[in-house]
Amino acid sequence: MTHPGGTERHQLLATMHEVIKAVRLLKQDRPPTLAAVPVGTVGVLSEIRARETTGCHAKELAADNALDPSTISRAVAALVRTGLVARSADPADGRASTLHLTDQGRDVLDAAQAHYETRFAAALRDWSPQEITDFTAALQRFARDLIDQHTHAPELEAAR
């Protein structure tokens, strides 16, 4: 049985594989100024910066980014070893620690974000502002729908 839109969905899946490949290549193609940043941890640095005013806990990073706690733990340990992140005792719970960017961590994150912005600008140089806006909206919707589908998967399975 053929599902309506099956060909389009198949093409989307193939395109998503290309997007994932492009992201992997982007992560690997780093200037020497980013050598101190362990591969795959720029997002973790960004999340820590975004949460610094309220205190950032590794457990929350894992949950909010759909990552296994052990994955976040290894990433944070690598960032602490390289001097980009510091741990401090959580004032509300002395057994827990909060994560904060060091000055070096802020500088490196700024450089990484500038690098990625330059790469994106180059990739999008032939795109109109409207194409970028439309693509962004479609990608946001797709991400939300995938996350919602995952969140509600147990309910959907129970209904079958």
TrEMBL record:
InterPro entries: HTH_MarR-typ, MarR/SlyA-like, Tscrpt_reg_MarR-type_CS, WH-like_DNA-bd_sf, WH_DNA-bd_sf
Organism field: Actinoplanes awajinensis subsp. mycoplanecinus
GO molecular function, one term: DNA binding
Full protein name: HTH marR-type domain-containing protein
GO BP of this protein: response to stress
Assigned keywords, A-Z: DNA-binding, Transcription, Transcription regulation
SMART domains in the record: HTH_MARR
Xref: Pfam families: MarR_2 (PF12802)
Domain of life of the organism encoding this protein: Bacteria
Domain spans labelled HTH marR-type: 9-144
